[in-house]
Request: fold
Amino acid sequence: MDWFTERQSKGLSLSIGLKKKLFEGNSKFQKISVFDTIEFGRMLTLDDKVMLTERDEFIYHEMIVHPIFQMLKKCENVLVIGGGDGGTVREILRYKDVKKIYLVEIDEMVIEVSKKYFPNLGKYLNNKKVEIKIMDGAEFVSKTNENFDVVIVDSTDPVGPGEILFSDKFLKDVSRISRNIVSQTESPFLLKDFIKGYHRKLRKYFKRLFYYIVPIPTYPSGTWSFTIGTNENLKLKGKIELKYYTPEIFKSSLSIPPFYRT
Reply:
């Protein structure tokens, strides 16, 4: 049996048994690979780091979208930074009041690969409500004159092209165009200090934070975090129940163990 191994930290690796490699290519920004795995179905990796698998992607995509959408009074105009696989857009499109989704993805090859190898995700990028812009997300945010009900930062890790999306300047620029931001904020087990620093920056521009953790088996340490920053008085109101997300699950995910608190 062949194995894919991701080195998640200096002393931790995750290995996943493979059936076969379906694709490998290099864009201007990163190596992109697709595998058919034994336990997790098809798997997308960027620079040899797991981005999604068919078996557990719904946890990530439901939990980056529905907590904020279930608290907003209205959400018509949405900006997604990253998210070229289409999973975040799929979840946003559940809301009929959404009129426009701008998806700003720096790497066009991610979109092309997703549409070919993950059609149940990539097909949502063809929706008429979605406008795709192939460019740097931070540059778009700094220059746009649009206002958004929420900005969702569905980024890679805070290194390389993704590093600027966790910067002070980027957060300041986001606060100019939206009262709400959602970001994936890495593993609280492995990168607690990074999350603390990000939250310090976020509090400079958003008056209230919702920090929550979820289990994602193929992500580093198996535990992942998300953070909502808002300048609105948000309250959970929705009743939607999906494969992972329910109102009760979200409420419980906000109960952060002392070890993970920032």
Summary: DSSP finds eight helices and twelve strands in the chain. The chain has two domains: 2-52, 57-260.
